[in-house]
Design goal:
CATH topology of the largest domain: DNA polymerase, domain 1
Low-confidence stretches: none
Number of strands: 5
CATH superfamily of the largest domain: 5' to 3' exonuclease, C-terminal subdomain
Helix content: 40-55%
Strand content: 15-25%
Radius of gyration: 17 Å
Strand order of the largest sheet: 1-2-3-5-4
Structural class: alpha+beta
CATH class of the largest domain: Mainly Alpha
């Protein structure tokens, strides 16, 4: 099994990157955030990988950090969740936010991914809740605030990924949905 690759990024597309390792180009699927980071890399980069073996293909999935790989492997362990769906779920938010959503049984957070319905989200929560630790109810308010802020930014014409990226940059001491929206709008205004 291929667990890690180190090399130079030779191409970054919308869903995958090609990593040149000793003259061999490996096609590695990754989350939007990982691909964004790889676009900025000019030197050698190391990716932790998961090799998915199917009857007709060998697919590599790459991650910058071990917690991302671990969450990915937990998600694909849930029946009905394949590697592509797992990447889409991970593109929804950061690892810690997703863990909070799962441990607090916030299925509505997970259903925002295309192809993930209520029953699948409930299955994810049921199978992974105990593995996420006890992060429960205290974080439900934080998730609601973030979800509301994303919806507000989307209503102002920003894409979900732009909204989530801006909210990741909001200072942790910023309180309330309106405070987060204001700060995210400043961040979005600087990037345009």
């Amino acid at each position: 099994m291929i667990a890690r690759l180190e090399g130079k990024v030779s191409f970054v597309g919308e869903r995958y990157a090609v990593l040149d390792v000793g003259g061999v180009g490996y096609k590695i699927s990754a989350t939007i955030d990982t691909l964004r980071m790889l676009r900025k890399e000019k030197g050698v980069v190391a990716l932790l990988t998961h090799l998915a073996v199917r009857e007709d293909a060998l697919d590599l999935y790459g991650f910058l950090h071990r917690p991302e790989l671990e969450l990915f492997e937990m998600l694909i362990g849930v029946s009905g969740i394949g590697p592509r769906s797992a990447l889409q779920i991970m593109g929804l938010a950061g690892v810690e936010t997703l863990k909070k959503a799962i441990s607090s049984e916030d299925t509505s957070y997970l259903t925002k991914v295309s192809g993930i319905g209520r029953k699948t989200a409930e299955k994810i929560v049921l199978e992974l809740k105990d593995k996420m630790g006890s992060q429960g109810g205290a974080h439900h308010g934080e998730l609601k605030e973030e979800s509301d802020a994303v919806e507000a930014l989307k209503s102002l014409g920003y894409s979900q990924s732009e909204a989530r990226e801006a909210l990741k940059k909001v200072r942790t001491e910023t309180v309330g949905t309106s405070g987060k929206i204001k700060e995210a709008l400043k961040i979005l205004g600087e990037t345009r």
